[in-house]
Amino acid sequence: MKIPTELVGTRVGRTVFDHQVRISFTDHTPDGRVRLYVELVIETSCVFTDASGHQVLLSPGTGPSLAPLLGLFARTVTETEVTGSGALCLGFDDGTRLSVEPHSDYESWSLTGSGIDPVLVGPGGETDWQD
Fold it and tell me: Considering Cα of 27, then 30, then 34, then 36, what sign does the dihedral take?
């Protein structure tokens, strides 16, 4: 599976919460055309680390407790890393980080959209990650 390095340089344009967390990322070419439009769907718990290093465990479907993710709006992705069997870690321009580990029983995260290969980390995770 391909590590989604295309996310570096994209900006968060939308966050949506229900029984999932959805974060949309966009990037444009110099002439203003959309180069990349991607939606990250998080279906299991994730760790949000703010710029000061304070960590919070967040779970989809928990309403107001997801508020820290609102701070990602308009932030730019500076780092994309996938380790192990599909642990995703995104770094942002203000020092914030978002991490999602694979879950043994459920799909943990996925990426879909234009300008990127789709990714789905299913139960137990995925192997053979490539740059």
Answer: negative
Q: How many CB atoms lie within 10 A of CB 109?
A: 24
Report the helix count and the strand count for the chain, using DSSP H and E. 0, 10
**Residue 128: which pLDDT band, with cuts at 50, 70 and 90?**
confident
The answer on pLDDT for 131 being more than 80 is no
111 φ, ψ (degrees, to nearest 5) = -130, 130
**d(C-alpha 77, C-alpha 97), whole Å:** 9
Whether the CB-CB separation of 75 and 8 falls below 8 Å is answered with no
Phi and psi at residue 63, to the nearest 5° = 60, -125
* Residue 68, helix vs strand vs coil: helix
Q: Based on C-alpha coordinates, what's the Rg of the chain?
A: 14
Q: Is-contact 83 90, C-beta < 8 A?
A: no
> Is 121 exposed, middle or buried, given 0-12, 13-18 or 19+ CB atoms closer than 10 A?
buried
